[in-house]
Write a structure and sequence with these properties.
There is one protein chain. With 144 residues, the chain is mainly beta. It has one domain. It contains one helix and seven strands. The longest helix has 15 residues. It starts with 14 loop residues before the first helix and ends in a 30-residue tail after the last strand.
């Protein structure tokens, strides 16, 4: 299902398939970016009758995949600035600094996340940021 915000939701059974499809299609437009897989533990996101989302029930692993502008390294292993606005993971924000690494399964996983905003051109912490950058803990992640 695709929304007007250019967001695709997929079931876990087809998540990897969608990842590779979007990665391939997006590389032409986002040539200087890595498509990164974020894993976290959160309560399931449920849409209520008025269309608003909220977390409900027991914690379950979740996944969100987003583009990261490469600042250091390359698309396989490095770091950069998150250029998407997360939908499912409330602790991540556009402008956060993400360290990532591609594993044997050819998926590029987020390793460490640092609270921004960071500059998309050079990766430096924006001057108007009021506090020190902090390593974000967005739940237990599977490390490959």
């Amino acid at each position: 299902m695709e929304t007007k915000k250019n967001i695709i939701f997929s079931c876990s059974e087809h998540g990897r398939e969608q990842y590779f499809k979007i990665q391939k299609l997006g590389e032409k437009r986002n040539y200087d970016c890595a498509y990164v897989w974020f894993q976290f533990d959160r309560n399931p996101l449920v849409l209520n009758a008025d269309g608003h989302a909220k977390y409900k029930g027991d914690s379950k692993p979740g996944v969100e995949r987003m583009w990261v502008k490469v600042i250091k390294g390359d698309k396989k292993n490095g770091g950069g600035v998150l250029i998407n606005t997360p939908v499912l993971e409330p602790e991540l924000k556009h402008g956060d600094y993400i360290e990532y690494k591609t594993h044997k399964d050819n998926i590029t996983y987020a390793k460490n996340c640092f609270e921004g905003p960071f500059c998309e051109c050079c990766g430096e912490l924006e001057e108007d940021h009021d506090h020190e950058n902090t390593n974000l803990d967005f739940g237990k992640r599977t490390v490959h």
